[in-house]
Each structure stands twice: as C-alpha cells, then as structure tokens.
C-alpha cells in the first residue's frame, strides 16, 4: 500500500483553529456525556424559542414551494424589509448565512496582504481570525474596564496608519455589553474623517438587546456612510441562531464585491430561513420588549452575585447578554497564572464552563453568558462562589 502524502495546511489558515468558545462548549458537552453535571454558561445563544409567527411563516414558505435557489444577494422581500428598517435601499443590502459570513465576505473582498484592521479589545473572537484568513493584520487596541471597555478617540488615532483599511466596532458588544453614546460615536467619527482611507464595520447584531438607548452608527455619523458596513441579523434578538441569516448594509460597490465572494462560496442563503427572517423584521417588536426585560433581570442577578465574590470586579453591561468581569484577584487567590488556567480549573474541578478573556483579546477577565434560565444561572453562580471559597 502506498503511503499517504503528508498533509500541509495552506499558509492562510496556519494557526487557525475552531474558536476557543466552541472548544470549551465541546469539552463541556463531552463531560456531560461522561455523566458529569456540567453547567455551561459559555455560549451566546438565547434560551427563548423562535417566535411562533416566524415559524409559521417558514412553514408557509415551505408548503408554498419556496424551496428553490435564492438570488445571491438575498430575496427581494427580505432585502426590502432590511432596507426599510435601516433607511437604506435594497441594492445596498446583502443577505448571508449568518452575520459571520457577512464579515468574512467583506474582509475577503477588500483586504490585501498586510492591510491593517483595527479592533478594540475585548472583541468577538472570530474577528481576528477572519482578518488573518483574508490576508490582513489585526491591530488590537486594549480598552480598559475604567473606560467601559470602549475605544477612545486618542487610542483610535494612535492605532491608525497608512496601512489601516478597516475599523471594526461592535456595540452592544460581545463580550462586554458596551454601548457607545452619540457623543462618543461623534468623537470617533471626527478621528475617522481625518483618515479617509479607513472603512468602518459596525457590528450591531445585539441592537435590540439593549438596557440603555442604542444609537446606530449610520444615524449618528452620516458622513461615514460612504465607507460604512453595518452588520446585523436575526440570530440573537429573535432566537434564530440555527436559521443562519445575517446581513450587511453598505455602499453598492462594496455590496457587489461581497456578493462576488458569496456567489462562489455559498450562493444565496436558505429560502425558508429568509422567509422566516422577513416575518421577524415585519412582525413588530413586542416579543423583543418582553425578552429584553427578562434579560435585564438576569443581568442584575448575575452582576449582584459576582460583585459579592472575592477577587471579582463586575460592571453591569449596557446591552447584549454577557458580563465580562475582571478576575485577576480570584486567579491569584486560587494560584492560577492565567485566565485560561482559571477557567480550565472551573470546568475540570467544579463542572462550570466559562470563557477566558484571552479569547476576546483581553486577558485577566472571563465571559459569562446570562442567556440562560435564572435557575441555571443561579446554579452556576453558586458553583463559582463555592470554588472561590474553597468548598467542594
């Protein structure tokens, strides 16, 4: 038998692995399969069901025969609904298989080798890997807890170079929940107007999960619209993670370039899922208001409990469904040099799955998702408290 040739990864994905969030979730699932009573507060997936009206729309689309290929940029109905909501035109919209594909399309369509992408840390873990895969270089700007984990104009100015192609903003933020005020966005706009080569990607996927007023960048900074890509979708607010529908809104030339990438990778997104997303966008916000109130109660429960634990400092997030507490004191008290070692210990010894801050570019913290029932959150918080107090 001939020996198989040695496998070589392409240079563009050397060092690229499944995200640490997914790895932790898979490890937690493996422990559960072995009989351990694991509490996993590690994933960003709301526990609410997809709204009934959305499911009904999907069922009707299927029975009506809307099961064929869709246009690469999305169905006319969904693009129109997105455009109406964003005060844009349908030709400025691309629909993709989730918001992650929108971001990948944009980076693959625009980055040359060595182009720089500024990303405030903490940032969603996939940002940096997508940029590297597209040939770009992430420029990570640490944002202090004292600044609300938000990018300041001075820090942005210092990070920009002639090689900067994009700034990635995410608000409400994963993992910190930070939301920028109109004044803060205008201050960043003033910096960007001095650097016309820099495009802006505004990831607003958690837009409707806000506990203080949220303002879209496109509305606050209209002078940036000619180089702004807004990313959004139905996954988080409408509990439609598995439907895989996200979208981008931006200048027509950018949208066409992103469509060229998508057309050679996946073509158009699922027809049934697009019908469901159209129903979500056009069906009113009452269900979102109820779920936001539930998330606020969960947030308050988690923040109050964490603030009472030794070595943990936790600020209440303004949006999304995560807290991102500083844990350096707890790490030191338990003899762990890194946040990753601390989280490994929690899973191995206390059957509690959380995500270390290093996964988001800012070590010394951890992310806890409160997109779970209060009973499950309380169990997880009790386990963390016992671990920090040395109880078994």
TrEMBL record:
UniProt-listed GO biological process terms: amino acid metabolic process
Recorded family membership: Belongs to the class-I pyridoxal-phosphate-dependent aminotransferase family.
Aminotransferase class I/classII large domain sequence ranges: 37-384
Species name: Pseudotabrizicola algicola
Keyword list, A-Z: Aminotransferase, Pyridoxal phosphate, Transferase
Subunit note: Homodimer.
Cofactors, names only: pyridoxal 5'-phosphate
Record's catalysed reaction(s): L-aspartate + 2-oxoglutarate = oxaloacetate + L-glutamate
Pfam families: Aminotran_1_2
Enzyme class at the top of the EC tree: transferase
GO molecular function, one term: L-aspartate:2-oxoglutarate aminotransferase activity
EC number: 2.6.1.-
Protein name per UniProt: Aminotransferase
């Amino acid at each position: 038998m001939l020996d198989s040739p040695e496998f070589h990864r392409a240079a563009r994905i050397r060092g690229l692995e499944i995200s640490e969030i997914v790895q932790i979730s898979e490890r937690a699932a493996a422990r559960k399969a072995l009989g351990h009573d694991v509490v996993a507060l590690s994933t960003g997936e709301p526990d609410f069901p997809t709204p009934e009206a959305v499911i009904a729309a999907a069922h009707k689309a299927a029975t009506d025969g809307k099961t064929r290929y869709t246009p690469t940029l999305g169905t006319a109905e969904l693009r129109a609904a997105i455009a109406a909501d964003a005060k844009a035109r349908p030709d400025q919209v691309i629909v993709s298989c989730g918001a992650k594909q929108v971001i990948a399309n944009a980076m693959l369509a625009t980055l040359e080798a060595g182009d720089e992408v500024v990303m405030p840390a903490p940032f969603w873990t996939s940002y940096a890997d997508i940029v590297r895969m597209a040939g770009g270089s992430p420029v990570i700007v640490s944002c202090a807890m004292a600044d609300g984990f938000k990018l300041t104009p001075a820090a942005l100015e210092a990070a920009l170079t002639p090689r900067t192609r994009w700034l990635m903003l995410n608000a409400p933020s994963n993992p910190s929940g930070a939301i920028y005020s109109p004044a803060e966005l205008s201050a960043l706009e003033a910096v960007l107007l001095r650097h016309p080569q820099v495009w802006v990607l505004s990831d607003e996927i958690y837009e409707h999960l806000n506990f203080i007023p949220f303002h879209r960048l496109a509305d606050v900074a209209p002078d940036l619209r000619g180089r702004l890509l807004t990313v959004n979708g139905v996954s988080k607010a409408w509990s439609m993670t598995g439907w895989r529908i996200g979208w981008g809104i931006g200048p027509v030339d950018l949208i066409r370039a992103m469509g060229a990438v998508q057309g050679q990778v996946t073509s158009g997104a699922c027809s049934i899922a697009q019908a469901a997303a159209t129903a979500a966008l056009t069906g009113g916000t009452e269900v979102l208001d109820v779920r936001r109130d539930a998330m606020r109660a969960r947030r308050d429960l988690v923040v109050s409990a964490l603030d009472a634990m030794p070595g943990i400092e936790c600020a209440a997030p303004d949006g999304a469904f995560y807290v991102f507490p500083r844990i350096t004191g707890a790490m030191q008290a338990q003899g762990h040099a890194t946040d990753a070692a601390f989280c490994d210990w929690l899973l191995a010894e206390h059957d509690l799955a959380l995500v270390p801050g290093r996964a988001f570019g800012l070590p010394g913290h951890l992310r806890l998702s409160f997109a779970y029932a209060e009973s499950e959150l309380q169990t997880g918080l009790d386990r963390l408290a016992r671990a920090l107090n040395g109880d078994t």
